[in-house]
Fold each of these.
Amino acid sequence: MSQLSDSIPRLTPPVSTDQLRELITGNDTMIDPKKLKDTVSFLDAGADSLDFFNLIVAIQEAYGITIPDSDLSQVNTLDKLARYLNARLP
Amino acid sequence: MYEELILDLPFKGDRDYLRLADILPALIELARDRFGPQADVDSLTIRRPFRRGIQVSFEPSVAFSGSFRVRHGRENTPGWLLETERPVTRRIRFDSSLLSAVAVSGPGFAQILEPLPGFTAFDVVVTLMKQVAAQVNRRHWWMCQLNLETPLTGVFPVEVRIRQNLNGQFLLFDIVQAGTAIGSARGILEGVSSQEAIIVPVI
C-alpha cells in the first residue's frame, strides 16, 4: 500500500481505464482492485467517500482539469470517467 | 511474528472519540521507538472515528479503520490502525476555544501567529482546519487525512488554507508553516464519512 501523494505526475490524454486504475489502486484506498472492473461503480468496488474525493483530486491534478460538482454523477465508473475526460481534454 | 501494539490514548475534553491530532503524536512516538529517532509519520488516514482503544499493526489487515506511513531514512513503512474492544478509560482536560480565540481568519484561510502553551502543533492545525471549514458549512467536519511533505514542527505562524472544495462535502487544505507549504489535509462533512453514506446519489 502506498499513500496518496500530493505531487501527482501530470498525465496526457488519451485517458485509458488502465491508466485510471493505476492512479486509483496506487493510493491508500478501500477499493478492492479485483472488483474494480471498467463498468463497476467505485462504490461497488469498495470505495468510500474519502476514496472518491481523493480520486477526483488526483485526476484533476494529473490531467490539469476541473471537474465541476454538477458532473460528479457522470463519473462513477472507470469507463464513464475515461470517456468524460477524453471528451474534455485537448 | 504477531506483535500487539496498543496506543493508550485518553479522550480530550468532552469528546467521546479520538481524533487525528490525538493519534498522530502517539504514532510518531511509536515510530521512533521502532525505527529510530529520525523516523516520522508523514501520512495518516482515519476512515471513521475511533471510540475505543487503537491497535497498531505493521501487517496488512482487512479490518482496518485507519492507515499511516512511517518515513525512516530512505524507506517508507506502511501501517494500519484497528479499533479494539478495549474501552478508553482516561479523559484529560482540553479546551480548544483558547486556540480559536487567537486565530486570525479571512476568506479561505486561518492562522495562528504564536504558540500557545499546552497545545501541540497538531492541535493548532486541526483547530485552524475546523475554523476554515466552518466558513463553508457550520456543521461538524471530520478531519480524516494528513499528508506531510516535511515534519510539522513548533515553528509559527501556522496557517491552513482551502485548496479545493468538492461539492461542499470535502475540503482539501494546504498546511503552511512560517510561509512554507509543508503538507495537506482533508476534511469530510459529518454524515458522509462512512462507506454507507458515500456521497449518494453522486457516485
Amino acid sequence: MEPTIPLFPHQASTVASRVDNLYFFMIAVSAFFALVVTLLVVFFAIKYRRRHDDEVGEPIHGSLALELLWTGIPFVIAMVMFVWGSSVYFALARVPEEALDIYAVGKQWMWKFQHREGQREINELHVPVNTPVRMIITSEDVLHDLYFPSFRVKTDAIPGRYTQVWFNATKTGTYHIFCAEYCGTKHSGMIGWVHVLPEDEYQAWLGGTNTGESLAQQGEKLFTRLACITCHNPNSAGRGPALLGVWGHTVQLANGNTVTADASYVRESILNPTAKIVAGYQPLMPTFQGQVTEEQLLALTEYIKGLAAGQPVPGAATPAAPAAVPAPPQ
Amino acid sequence: MPSRHYLNHPTGFKSWLLTTDHKRIALLYLFSITAFFFLGGMFALLVRLQLLSPAGALMTADAYNRAFTMHGVIMVFFFLVPSIPATLGNFLVPLMVGAKDLAFPRINLLSWYIYVVGGIFAIGSLIGGGVDTGWTFYTPFSSMSSNSRVLTGAIGVFISGFSSILTGLNFIVTIHRMRAPGLTWFRLPLFIWAHYATSLIMILGTPVIAITILLLAFERVLRVGIFDPKIGGDPVLFQHLFWFYSHPAVYIMVLPGMGVISELIAAFSRKNVFGYSFVAFSSLAIAVIGFLVWGHHMFVAGETPYAALLFSIISYLVAVPSAVKTFNWTATLYKGSISYQTPMLYAFGFIGLFLVGGLTGLFLAAVGLDIHVHDTYFVVAHFHYIMVGGTLMAYLGGIHYWWPKITGKLYPEGWSKLSALIIFLGFNLTFFPQFIVGYLGMPRRYAVYPPEFQVWNVLSTAGATILGVGYLFPMVYLTWSWFKGKPAGDNPWDAKGLEWETTSPPPTFNFDRTPVVTEATHMYGHPEEVKVV
C-alpha cells in the first residue's frame, strides 16, 4: 500500500541510497545556511529598526577579513559537494563488467525493450534482482529520456547514437519508468513499469516468453538477408573486412586514426559506411540508412559482438585471421 | 509636484510613440511587459489547473503542451529578459549616472519597436495555434516533428533578442561615457554595476541564440541537416548552442534584480552596502563565469564524464559570488536604520527566496544528484525560486521603490504590504511542493501523471491561485495611485542617489543642471565617520 502522502521515492537500487545520502547532506547544509541568514536578517531587522525619522545607519565600509571568510567557506563547502557529487556520479557512470545488457529504443510514444535472449517488451521491462543491468539506449525519432526514479538513474535516448545507463535493483517489485525528455503530444503517456523479479522467477519469465530465437540469431539471419555476408567474410577477396574477433578491439583506419569496435562504431559503419574506412579497404560499401530499423541494427550488433566469442562466420571455411587485423587484446 | 515634467510635456499620442526620452521608453516597456506578464501568467494558471487532477483536469495533452510552452516562451523572452533592464534600467541608468538620456536615444526607441515586432510574432504564433516544443525548442522535435507554429514563435524570439542587444549596447556606452563629473566607477550605485554586467551578457550571448534559431529555421524549412541525425545532423549540438545563450540569460534575468536589491537594502537601512567592491565585482564574476557552465544542462545528454565534471566544478564556482552578495546584504543591515516599507519587504522576500533558489542550485550542480532530479519538478521549482522568487520580487520591490520617482505619486502602503505578503506566501505554497514531487520523480512537462503525486500538485495549484490574486493587487492599486495617489515629493524615502536629487517626476532632460558627485553611493553618515571594521 502506497503511503497517501509520499515524501521520498522507493530506494530500489544499489546507488539509490548513495544519491539520497548526498541529497540529505545537501538539505542539511542548505537548511543551516538558510537558517543562519534568515535569523540574522530577522535579528538585525528588529534590533536595528528605525526609531525616529531622521535616523541614519552607521557608515561601515566593509571588512576584508569577513569577505575572505564568506568567500572561503562557501568555496570549501562547494568543493565538498563537488567531490561527493562526482563520486556518486562515478558509481552511476562505471558499468560493472558482468552487467546484463538490455536494449531500449524510444519512439513517439513508447519504450521498446529488447533482451539478448530474443524477448521483446513494450513499456514493460523485466529484470532480475541483485544483478547489474545495463540499458543500451537509442531513439528512432526525437529525444527521449529513460528514467527509473526508484533507481535514481536516467539518460537521454538520442537518435543517431547509443547512450547507456546501469542499475542494480535491490528490491523486487514494480516501479515506474518515465520518459523525462519532452517528446511531443503523448510525452506523459510514454511511461511504463519495470518489474524486478527474483532470479528464478526471472528465468521462468525468460523461458515462458521465449521466442526461440536470440537477438544474435536474428542478427545472423539479417546478416545474410541484407547480403552483408557477401563482402564481410574472409574469402571475399578483400572487398570488406571480415568481422570475426573485431568486437571490442581497436581497428586501424585508413586515415591513420583508430577506433574501438563498439555499438556506436558498428551502427555508424552500417548507416554511414564511408565515415570510417578500415585501413587497406576501399570505400565500396553502400549505406543502409533507411533500410534497417533501430531494432535490426541492435540485432546485427549483437551478432557481430558474438563473432568475437569465436563463432564461425557463416560461409567462412575456417575462422582464419580476418583481413582487418584487430590489435591484439590487451 | 513640478508643473512641467516628462509625463505631461510634450503631450499627444505621437509624442509618446516617437519619444526618445529614456523615461518614456521605460514606460512603453513597462506597459508592454506587463501585458506579456499577464498573458504568460494566464498560461501558468491553465497549467496549474490542468494538474489539479492526475488525469488532466482541463485540456488535451496537445493543448497542455502548448500552454506550458507559451508560458515559458512569453515569461522568459518577453517578460523576464527585458523586465528590470528595459523598465527600471531604462528609467534609472541615465538618472543614476547624472546624464540627460542614454547614449543613443533613438536606438533605445528602436529597441522597443523591435521588441514589439518580436512580441507580435509571439502572439501570432499563439493565434495560429501555439507552439508545443517547450521554451527550449529542442531538436529534432522542433525542427522535424512538431506540427505547431514553431517557426513563428522562434522568429519572435529571434527578433526580440535584438532589442536586448541594443539595450545592452546603450547601457555600456552610457555607463562608460556619460557619468557626471566626479562619478568615478567606484562611486557608481550597485544597480549600475549589475546592469553593466548584464549588458555584457546581452551583447555577447544574445547573438548566439539568434544564430541557433536561424539554424533551426534552416533545418525546419529547407531540411538542411544540422540537428537531425537522419539527415546528417547532431541533436546535441542544438543544446550546446541553446544553453550557451540560455544559461547566461539566467543571469540576464537575475543580475539586474540583485542590483535592485542592493539599492533597496541601502535605502531602507540608510546605509552604504557592506563590502561595496565585492558586491560590484561579484556581478562581473557571475557574468563571466556564467558563460562557462552551460554543460550542466546536459549531464544526461550523453556528455562525457570529463565534460560533466568540468561543468560541475565551474557551476559550483559561479555559486560563490552569489553567496558573497547574500552575506554582504545581510551584513549591510547590521547597525542600519531599518524601516519596513513595502520595497524593503520585497527585499527581505528576495533574500529568503533567492537563498532557496541558489542553494537548490547546488543540488543540481552535483552530477550524481542531478541525474536523478534532472527534468523533474525539482528543476522547475529551483528555477522558479530564482526567476520568480528572485527576479520578480526584486522587480516588484524596485517598481514600488521608484514609483514615486516615475509617477510623482505615493502608492498605498497598506495594500502594498498586504499584497507583498500574499505574493510571498502564495509563491512558497506554489513552488515548495514541487521540490518534493520532483525528488519523488515526477517529470516536468507531463499533461497527466501518476495519482500518488496528486497531493503535492493540488497544494501547488492552490498556491498559484493565491499568487495570481497577489499579482492583481499591485496592478490595481498602482494604476489607481497614478491618478489618485498622494503627491510623493521629490524624495519620499530620504534616499541617497542622483535620481532622488531631481524632481518627481523628473523633467524631460532629468536635471536642471549637471550634478557633480563628491562622495560614494549611499553615504548616509558623514564621510569622515566611515570606518573599516
